[in-house]
Write a structure and sequence with these properties.
The complex is a heterodimer.
Chain A: E1 2-5, H1 8-12, E2 18-20, H2 31-41, H3 44-49, E3 53-56, E4 59-60, E5 77-81
Chain B: E1 3-6, H1 12-19, E2 26-33, E3 38-39, E4 42-51, H2 53-71, E5 75-81, E6 83-86, E7 90-98, H3 101-118, E8 121-129, E9 132-137
Parallel strand pairs in B: 1-5
Antiparallel strand pairs in B: 2-7, 3-4, 4-6, 4-8, 5-7, 8-9
Helix pairs in contact in B: 2-3
Classes of the chains: A alpha+beta, B alpha+beta.
């Protein structure tokens, strides 16, 4: 699985814009678990995650209560999207 | 597709030519340019833009369809730079042709306002500071609603 990090999210990981997180052999990971894992690995990222949107395979996740339980697959691309600042 | 992310300079004359239409009585053009801001870390000599392209294209297409429906916008061209954009250069351009001027102005305003809030593009300051050139991402305003799942401890 691939995690893409943009702008302040990338800075919070010391400049890593793309993180590979293999999910092999039936490994089971939910989105909430992935985000927690990232926050544990990069403590500065926790503050960013509090305000970031998350997309899986280029689509925003809804706000439904089950969203964090979404199971991730190895071919998924998860994007961490801090507040936008284009223009 | 009338939205483009490009690393090349924006030529506003091309945009205007692109939206000209016999049906449109008004054309509005917005250009956003890079200001020489001063930050605590130094003077801004350029901005660096990055985008999450697949989602940016989809979100912009959604905004354009709203503008077409709500203001009868006939033709729309939106171009945003990615990569390094120097002070004074155009970083974003929005051109709208509509039947009347009020519709053209309103649709143009809507598109640039919503682009800034809803399209995944980010700017970083490229500084010429005391410690030499550097880059620091600027954070935008958090979205009003936060469409993201609970992240357990990560959200702390």
């Amino acid at each position: 699985m691939k995690v893409l990090l943009f702008a302040v999210a990338r800075e919070a990981t010391g400049g890593r814009g793309e993180i590979d997180r293999p999910l092999r052999g039936g490994a089971d990971l939910s989105l909430a678990e992935l985000l927690q894992e990232l926050g544990d690995a990069y403590p500065e990222l926790r503050r960013v995650l509090a305000h970031a949107r998350v997309a899986v395979n280029g689509t925003y996740l809804g706000t439904g209560s089950g969203t964090g339980r979404r199971r991730l697959e190895d071919r998924d691309e998860v994007a961490i999207l801090p507040p936008y600042s284009g223009g | 597709m009338s939205f483009e992310l490009t690393s090349r300079p924006i030529r506003e004359a091309d945009l205007l030519r692109g939206v000209r239409s016999d049906e449109a009585g008004g054309i509005a053009l917005f250009l956003g340019t890079v200001r020489p801001d001063r930050t605590r870390r130094g003077k801004v000599r350029a901005l660096y833009y990055e985008a999450y392209r697949p989602l940016a294209l989809r979100e912009m297409a959604r905004l354009e369809s709203v503008a077409r429906r709500r203001w009868k916008a006939e033709r729309i061209r939106v171009v945003h730079r990615v990569g390094v954009v120097r002070v004074g250069e155009v970083s974003v351009a929005v051109a709208v042709a509509a039947p009347h001027r009020a519709q053209a102005f309103d649709a143009c305003r809507f598109l640039i306002d919503r682009l800034k809030a809803e399209v995944p593009i980010w700017k970083s300051d490229v500084l010429l500071g005391e410690r030499g050139p550097g880059r620091r991402a600027r954070s935008g305003s958090p979205p009003r609603r936060r469409p993201r799942p609970k992240a357990g401890r990560a959200a702390g």
